[in-house]
Design goal:
588 residues, alpha+beta, six-stranded antiparallel β-sheet, 22 helices, 16% strand, disordered C terminus, AsnB_N
Length: 588
């Protein structure tokens, strides 16, 4: 995962301006510690901080076409670059970088080539022949990108807000699936899948198609020339990623370079649910497993650094980013530069526990569409920036374009949680990998109840964060919150505390507006809060806020988890009988 900074039409070609661009680019060096590059043409500058994953020896950026009239700086991976190169027989490639194909595609197809790219990316391309430029971001927004405007008429693009916030009068989060063209001076959406309209699909459930398309998504992301691993929480999504990788690793190029033993990584407070489940999965798959621990105090001590890197004050994101940030540092210290992770599945399949309350398939499907469209503001932002803070790249196979199309083309009735039919959340995915002859995972792991990452690392983590915020934010501060922070006013002391830290690093109003707001329960959108009247009284992003659903749901006091009862026949775990909407935590 690299860092890009482009400043175009700055109206200043002085050495001082070039030095300023280089200085700002260094703010992104954590993303790309392996090499730095800059190209200038008149008053346009393209800078790059490289994390070398593919072709480490010759793929330094910026990259060019044959006569260097087209210049591009790219953050990301183009998984189908070999296939695209085959369509360009008249072009001469100068490096083995997967990203160089972008310059040549532009030469061949103009601005209309972006949909041909299969991967995660953000890039800025300068055509020096007419001094025009384009910028684009991948379909879902896996790779971050910001766009800003200077008072001198310049247009800025950066992988992170910190490199442009001081010099731009206004800036925004560049929308995913969009392209900006200087020729029109406007943004347009290049990614137009059928599900984007939110109309209800009707294709029948095909478990083999789900399985095959996901396996292809995982395998293509093993394109690397450096050591890699899998982030394994022990939940369904990361466990499936690890299982598929372990099945296919031996046949890949990376196995010939670095060996066919898969490394997996998990972090949590000692005794946390994720650590136990992850070890069980790792033992089952035979991986080299690295169990990492942190304490609540270590997490609290890292909060300011986390907020600086992740560039948000969203409560859910900060809760989950902190352990991921700490884990990434330890992973990088082991010499690993790339990891696969399980983000995106819950949005696609309705895996969050609040989906139990979806009233019908229409609202279920529309909520999944809203969640996918917002991923760049939440889980994609967390996964990318928490890892890249330490020069580690995260790849997310569930957000493969083709896999999303397959999963979102399915009749949403199949995804609905139906206790009467024994279907828990993400049943369609679980069932697709429920292979009796050659099991992907142990049955009880395959049907483990959803744990959000910030919960699974240990329930006392969130409780500790709340206690810390209570010590630093007074009741009078909360009483005046709407005057101090009129945009996205914090409604809890925890949210207020994060906001004060964020404002210290990013004080401009434009920065505040890059962060989403609105009520949420168990990671829902504001619209889905309407599904259950009781939820409006407990607006907390933790999965435990899904009253009557989570096995350890909040009751009168968040610290006290309800007792569990076990069905002696099925060994399914249930919440106490007095709680509404009994939901099994495991199903066979």
């Amino acid at each position: 995962m690299c860092g890009i900074l482009a400043v175009l039409g700055v109206g200043d070609v002085s050495l001082a301006k070039r030095s300023r661009i280089i200085e700002l680019s260094r703010r992104l060096r954590h993303r790309g510690p392996d090499w730095s590059g800059i190209h200038s043409y008149e008053d346009c500058f393209l800078a790059h901080q490289r994390l070398a994953i593919v072709d480490p020896t010759s793929g330094d950026q910026p990259l060019y076409n044959e006569d260097k009239t087209v210049v591009v700086t790219v953050n990301g991976e183009i998984y189908n670059h070999e296939e695209l190169k085959a369509k360009l027989p008249s072009h001469k490639f100068q490096t083995g970088s997967d990203c160089e194909v972008i310059a040549h595609l532009y030469e061949e197809y103009g601005e209309e080539f972006v949909d041909m790219l299969d991967g995660m990316f953000s890039f800025v391309l300068l055509d020096t022949r007419d001094k025009s430029f384009i910028a684009a971001r991948d379909a879902i927004g896996i790779c971050p990108l910001y766009m800003g405007w200077g008072l001198d008429g310049s247009v800025w693009f950066s992988s992170e807000m910190k490199a442009l916030s001081d010099d731009c009068e206004r800036f925004i989060s560049f929308p995913p699936g969009h392209l900006y063209s200087s020729k029109t001076g406007s943004l347009r959406r290049w990614y137009n899948p059928p599900w984007f309209s939110e109309s209800i699909p009707s294709a029948p459930y095909d478990p083999l198609l789900i399985r095959e398309s996901f396996e292809k998504a995982v395998i293509k992301r093993l394109m690397t020339d450096v050591p890699f691993g899998v982030l394994l929480s022990g939940g369904l999504d990361s466990s499936l990623v690890a299982s598929v990788v372990s099945r296919h690793l031996a046949e890949t190029k990376v196995a010939r370079q670095w060996g066919n033993k898969l490394h997996t990584f998990c972090i949590g407070l000692k005794g946390s649910p994720d650590l136990k489940a992850a070890k069980e999965v790792a033992d089952y798959l035979g991986t080299v497993h690295h169990e990492l621990h942190f304490t609540v105090q270590e997490g609290i001590d890292a909060l300011e650094e986390v907020i600086y890197h992740v560039e948000t004050y969203d409560v859910t994101t900060i809760r989950a980013s902190t352990p991921m940030f700490l884990m990434s540092r330890k992973i990088k210290s082991l010499g690993v530069k790339m990891v696969l992770s399980g983000e995106g599945s819950d949005e696609i399949f309705g895996g969050y526990l609040y989906f139990h309350k979806a009233p019908n398939k229409k609202e279920f499907h529309e909520e999944t569409c809203r969640k996918i469209k917002a991923l760049h503001l939440y889980d994609c932002l967390r996964a990318n920036k928490s890892t890249s803070a330490w020069g580690l790249e995260a790849r997310v196979p569930f957000l493969d374009k083709n896999f999303i199309n397959v999963a979102m083309d399915m009749d949403p009735e199949c995804k609905m949680i139906r206790r009467d039919l024994g279907r828990i959340e993400k049943w369609v995915l679980r069932n697709a990998f429920d292979d009796e002859e050659k099991p992907y995972l142990p049955k009880h792991i395959l049907y483990r109840q959803k744990e959000q990452f910030s919960d699974g690392v240990g329930y006392s983590w969130i409780d500790g964060l709340k206690d810390h915020a209570n010590e630093h934010v007074s009741d009078s501060m909360m009483m005046n919150a709407s005057f101090v922070y009129p945009e996205n006013t914090p409604t809890t002391k925890e949210a207020y505390y994060y906001r004060t830290v964020f404002e210290k690093f990013y004080p401009k109003n434009a920065a505040r507006l890059t962060v989403p707001g609105g009520p949420s329960v168990a990671c829902s959108t504001a619209k889905a809060v309407e599904w259950d009247a009781a939820w409006s009284k407990l607006l907390d992003p933790s999965g435990r806020a899904a009253l009557g659903v989570h096995d350890a749901a909040y009751e009168d006091t968040p610290e006290k988890a309800p007792a569990l009862s076990v069905d002696p026949v099925t060994e399914d775990v249930f919440r106490p009988a007095h709680v509404e909407s009994l939901v099994p935590a495991a199903a066979v």
